């Protein structure tokens, strides 16, 4: 079980990293916020990089779990364009991922650090772009198989569906402090896009 001090170091570090970037934050900055001596940090972590690595490790566990839950919702539910299925997807992806406090801060951190760290860039690309697109492609492929939407290129539909959502997330969820007002702006834009997207599919 993780000690309270270790968890507080992780929480404070993530908050500082997500606002200032990894390089701009020192161990001394972290200690000042946690209100501990530097030696106490080194009892739990070898160095600042070790804190960063543990945060990323935990994030990848959370993100992997999210994708597993999405895959399960796709396989166990009757796949249709009715609200319950897509509500499950959106609640999981929007509410429990993009707008989750921990995940949101990690993605802000990844967004900052990707420009100077190729490994971080790969992590950012995987969890912000590649994994969501792959899942959405599977969803559209399944919808085509059961005749809910017309036959088309599922990969292209995934991009067409996800690109505005990614844009709305960048505009409202990953710029400035995350507030309820920003969350609601994202929700309104994202759900309007989803409704129009499927309405156009029905017309086609």
Automatic annotation (TrEMBL):
Pfam families: TetR_N (PF00440). The keyword DNA-binding applies. Keywords: DNA-binding. Residues 26-45 bind DNA. One of its GO terms (molecular function) is DNA binding. PROSITE patterns: HTH_TETR_2 (PS50977). Residues 3-63 form the HTH tetR-type domain. InterPro entries: Homeodomain-like_sf, HTH-type_Tx_Regulator, HTH_TetR. This is TetR/AcrR family transcriptional regulator. It comes from Sellimonas intestinalis.
